[in-house]
Give the backbone structure.
Amino acid sequence: MSQIDRAASELREMDDLAMKVSPIHSLHPLVKLLVTAAYIVCTASFPKYDLSGLFPMILYPALIFPMSGIPVSVCLRKFRAVIPLLAVVGCFDLFLDRRTVFSLGNIPVTAGMVSFTVFFLKGILCLTASFLLVATTTLDRLCAALRMLGLPSALVTLFLLTFRYVSVMIDELYAMNTAYLLRAPGQKGIHYSVWGSFLGQLLLRSMDRAAELYESMQLRGFDGDMRYAGCSQFSLHDIILTAVSVGAIVFLRLVNFSRLLGGLFV
Amino acid sequence: MHMADALLSPIVAGAMYVASGTAAGTSVVKLKKDDEPSKLPTMAVASALVFAGQMINYTIPGTGSSGHLCGGMLLSALLGPYAGFLSMVVILTIQCLFFADGGLMALGANCWNMAFYGCFVGYFLIWRPILHSRWFSNMDSKAATRLKITIASVIGCILTLQLGAFSVVLETSLSGITELPFGAFMALMQPIHLAIGLVEGLITSAVLLYVFEARPELLQEVDAEEKGFQNKRSLKATLAVLAAVVVFVGGGLSLFASSNPDGLEWALFGNAESGYSENMALDEDDYGVSSDVADTAADIQEHTAFLPDYAFPDNDSSVGTTVSGIVGSLIVAVIAAGIAVLGGFFRKKQANA
């Protein structure tokens, strides 16, 4: 059962990456959250043919990857979820928009080729930015930042609890699935005669356990809100850092940096 | 059905965040009002289970393929629509952040397409009316409930997936990012999701039937009869509600489909020659869509977009700017590579020191 097994190892991997020590890891989570949001919105908002304008946005991952020490290879593996979608949806541009806009030597470059590249690059860059956020911030700190932004406590607590249970459930289901498949050689998945009971049993057991868990949490003083350790106040230093970073991103969005640089030489 | 950030324009993505955020806010308020923080661990466990359960393959009899579980219907049948919606939001967020399934900016749209329809539409328009209906009243009550659970799950999954798929197409087209024609995209999405919905519905109903056999009190709306809460809604009324939904959805679809016989015309959504904002203003005669609304939307977008009137520079694409763009991009690439190499060098030095 590769998918569920892979999911378990990916979760552990992301957890390990977020625990590393680096200047980026130690930034206030709210700074990272706001800068990531600004970066994604600015990147996604580039017009569909503005390749030279969009290209300088790669400076952000180029800066954050080495500073945080996150291996690029882990991020590349995440792309497999999004690349088929981008390729299928984007490839229509290649066929439907065939006006030649300029030539590179003898090779005519069509508007479709430009918009496909922009679309693809946007998808990859946005994904990289959210990956970098999660890979450099532990979930507790991310949740603390979300609380600071005013997200309801119930939603954030649910998010934190669910994330913790996900790894437990994945392990449990992985064991069940392996046990089932070992007893059902040549079968691709769960036979329809046990469709209901396979997940149903685990569901009932888990819901009972959740009720007990809630009682024990209450006995330890749980009042519906989580306490987040290790997340300081949003200081002046953090505000300046956020403003400068967001300012730089907005600058890259508004000014065609490639043309500006190229203009100096051509 | 998870959408990537690149498919959406920030305006559409923002609008979907507002829509999903409102639904989430309402759900949180409702949950608090019902004083159900005790539900939190149950919700977390159920959503974690659904998250992991969606990775299990269920063999579809007679075919070589396998299907998966439908999260929205299962969670709202177990936890109710509000708690179910919040649980789905959390599942989608974890999928987005840790597995790159769907983008962070597109999260609002994904929550709407997959959680809102599955939980609210699925619950209020399908699960509850069907479970409260007097269908199969000539049968013994347990057998009738079993049939009703099966029918509700299957219809619920099919309809909510169709709505979700349609929303994906609509949101993509409104964003005007790709040249993919509206009609062709829809013709691709809807039938696939019809098949997926049927299989997911059957798997979901199997799990719900198991829960019904073992612990019927866990399911929402199922013990209504025992509690003496007999809904007055007859089969006819239930069918009328369903028919209204179908007419609404079908009408909405045909409004777009019939006026674009070849579907390709919708490519003008992404037509480069009329500017980005102008794309949004549909021609009333050709498309049967009120252009007043479209104009207003275009207006808003024009005022909020960073560079509203930008199009491929046909008129100003002098060789000079193109070349400087390419040269500049190359310099940026060199700078980026330089930063990456230097950054790695300094980190290693720091680590050694």
